[in-house]
Amino acid sequence: MKNHNKRDWIKYIFIIVIAGLFTNNFFYKDNNSLEDTQLAQDQRQTNLNQIKHLPSQSETQVNHVKVQDKVVTHIEDNSKSLSEPEETTNNIVDHPYTVQSDYINQDFFDEALCTSDEVRANYQPMLVKALKGFGSQYQHSTYQINEYITLNLYASRLSTYFIKQLQDRIKSLHHIYISMLGDIAKRKIILNLVVTASRDDYDHYVSVYSDHSQSTLGVYFGGLNLAFVDYQRADDKGLKTATHEIVHALHAHILGRTPRMFNEGMAEYFEDLIIKNGKPSIQISKEKTMDNILDLSHFIHDSEWTYGNARDNLGQLYYSSWAWILFMFDYDLNGRQALTYFMEKEQVNPCTSILGSEFYSIIQQIYSTFDSDFLNWQDQISNSADSN
Question: Residue 364 maps to which CATH number?
Fold first, then answer.
């Protein structure tokens, strides 16, 4: 009996040892398997994020209406509403708070390069360095706006409303340009936007690239393909400025360099774009149309916009350019057709801006009475304001 029990105990010990070795090997393999599975899942998700696109919208139409209590330009879209762009990554950028002093000036283009794409490629190392210079409080999120546009957003504590409105406005803007230019506007575009958490941050970062940061709320650096926006502690104010700078970025990618009055006029016009119930429209308060508008000859030439010449009336230059673009969209269908014709001409050589005199001639080819109609339109606005 004892010998039999002894043999049983030996057998039991042998089974326990074998089971222990098997269990240890199982858990070791299982841990590796879990890690490999997670890596595979992460890789698949990364691949999905890289190829995920939203369906394109139908062509967008801008309707012009008369100036009443509000100037309201309805942008009609045959699709029911704007699809919500989807966030693809959401990574915290945590780098030392350092900036460099060897960046290019605002709106710099190298005339020796034949396309603005080559300019951006040339300055890609500088862009990478710039994006590594933000404080750790800035979160980097990437959004696929549509099948063409990717937004890299660097910000701190933005509201859901701000992020949703920003994406919808970018999507609407791009479809407006597609409706005007067709395939010319259908190109891959990466937008890099920094919404600063404070005015001090804005001045600090922008001063690296520009000497005039304290007189701006937003700026887009064409060569770097990088925009900065002062959030101004208010969603709607920050959105207007962000939309303004996005227009500059779209021009840089689709058209290249453009006359300052056109570039700023379009940005001023579209910063009043809003999205309500999934539908885009331009809404401008009547008070914005009451100021004095400069004669076209005083703001059509880029020389009028140089810092020295424009120091005392820069605001009026912006306002007059906005009014002219509003007139071109609002007064007569020939105006929109003339703008489209100019944009088609301008994008042929993206590194050279069409001069003011040539710009005037191009517009006149499509809309021969635009200058006299512009004066008549101003009179109508003035008479409407006086009657109220």
Answer: 1.10.390.10
